[in-house]
Amino acid sequence: MSASGGEWLERDTRQEEENVALAISKLQLQPNSVVADVGAGTGYYTFRIAPKVPQGTVYAVEVQEAFVTGLEARKKELVLNNVTVVKGSAQSPNLPEASVDLAIMVDVYHELEYPREMLQALHRSLKPTGKLLLLEYRAEDPSVPIKALHKMSVAQAYKELSANGFTLSRREDFLPIQHFLLYEKAK
Fold first, then answer.
1. Which parts of the sequence belong to the Methyltransferase type domain (predicted)?
2. 62 CB contacts (<8 Å, ≥6 apart)?
3. Which backbone phi and psi does 171 adopt, to 5 degrees?
4. Domain over 36-185 is classified CATH 3.40.50.300
């Protein structure tokens, strides 16, 4: 999504449509957790997670300069010193190695230009016990009112992530229109 789609990310109906509060409540965050919001966009998740990790860090990773600028401005406006905005690339989130407890991609994975390279870079940035969460619109459900190219199936996610060193540790179906797929590093 280009930065021109920022209004859609901040739409008034998003909580009702996606139940963001429930998704965040299920992240099992600790006060000192290090979270990477990869493809943060406007920071919809970033700025809701940051207060839940007051001694931790939230990396807001974005590749688009317009979003990076917006994230920096919003961070200052909200005075959230535990948010670090990171300019990522198409192939890497540009995060320190073995530093992240939880990386999240909210409706982002299916948009990646270089998924293999990004997954490998994320794998390196996760701590040994770190996890990767994909929230993706359910491709298996034709009633989800999202274009098919912006949806992802569990089978597709499993195939791609298992080929890149991840195993599914938790799959939940509590969200109205998205998969909640939590991966860990393969043993």
1. 37-132
2. 39, 40, 41, 68, 71, 85, 86, 87, 88
3. -125, 125
4. no
pTM of the model: 0.93
What is the distance between the alpha carbons of residues 123 and 132, in angstroms, rounded to a whole number?
9
Cα angle value 106/52/34 (rounded, 5°): 65
Alpha-carbon torsion (7, 59, 34, 173), positive or negative:
positive
Query: Distance between the two ends of the chain, CA-based, in angstroms?
Result: 34
Q: Going residue by residue through the chain, which has 187 residues, state the pLDDT in tens, using 9 for 90 and above.
A: 555 555 756 667 777 888 999 999 999 999 999 999 999 999 999 999 999 999 999 999 999 999 999 999 999 999 999 999 999 999 999 999 999 999 999 999 999 999 999 999 999 999 999 999 999 999 999 999 889 989 999 999 999 999 999 999 999 999 999 999 999 999 8
Contact 20, 44 (CB under 8 A): yes
- Residue 59, judged by CB atoms within 10 A of its CB (0-12, 13-18, 19+), counts as buried
- For residue 43, give both structure tokens: 């920071």
